Amino acid sequence: MIWRIGYRLLLWLLFPWALAHLWWRGRRQPGYREHIGERFGWYQAKPARPVIWLHAVSVGETRAAEPLVRALAARYPDHELLLTQMTPTGRETAQQLFGDRATIVYLPYDYPGAVARFLARFRPRLGILMETEIWFNLVEGCARLGVPLLLANARMSEKSARGYELAAPLTRAALGRLAAVSAQTREDAERLELLGARSVEVTGNLKFDVVPAPRLLALGAELRQRIGPRPVLLAASTREGEEEMVLDALARVRIEDLLLLLVPRNPQRFDEIAALLERRKLGYVRRSDNRAVSRDCRVLLGDSMGEMVAYYAACDLAFIGGSLLPYGGQNLIEACAVGRPLLFGPYMYNFAAASSLALAAGAAIEVADADVLGERAGELLRDQASLARMAQAALAFSRAHQGATARSLAICERLLTPR
Length: 419
Description:
2 domains, 18 helices, 47% helix
């Protein structure tokens, strides 16, 4: 009880900060200043059919949910699909993927009144929370109304588990109220059970079931044709501080005509990275300009959203950003699904299981730092036979771990079956 009162008091103390945060983030991403009423439980949309609700906080979780959303739509055509996000980029991704078949809104902040209005408005028959989205008042509100909650594609790193342990009473109460948990790996399942989760099953990672869109593969082929016959290294989803490290490392790679395809993770940093390239006097082209990539161009700046599959399809070798510095890495499964060899740094703890499996399969190589990144990239790009072996290993690795969608759908069917 004391923890719950303290949590609610903290939420109210943070209320002015929440409004300021939306305004501040809206300077670079205007979407943060839109649909603000939804953040507090006020909605215009009103369902006319029974609702199945899935929450995916941002872009990565929304893309991971794609095979499960499509399976639910096919299995329950008489239901309305409700998708919620917390970020404008996540909402935009949901619109791109499911705008013709789902209602898409923001999930409210975890204030009791906002949660109550959300649940009263949509009255979901089932709620699905993707990965590690555990909101204490939301879980309590669903339990009070009898809305079964599934924590799907759940992952729990050692670092995250230590954080949840700091609020152990709240964590145990929330996880204990979940109707089911589908965990990515046995290690994830064990950590969640230690924190209080029940009815935990290991179903695998939904991201292995995401099929690369033919439109994006075609765009990748078009980009590759525009680039021409030259080696291409992709630095995918780089984070703050990593772009300088990658550029320094590649300056020492002596490969004629090498092109760096550089894609920052956050769209608000596109202009910042363009300015960095100008300061370094590196010839570059922005993807958004749709211009030809000349032979003297050193960098193609991927300043677009929703085209990562195309970027993977256009490269010879991919480096996974967020891994040279302690950000936890990014999803590497998309690259494997299109058969691209991988390099990543020592900080892949948010994707520990997938990265370990990729290393064991021969689809990826871990590098200790940026200097080693440059060395290994140069070696591989000069060795077409090794690149080809790693590419085949990546495809085989991706296909060998499919099937999480069917296992997760079976849990949803069980929770939706009247008792």
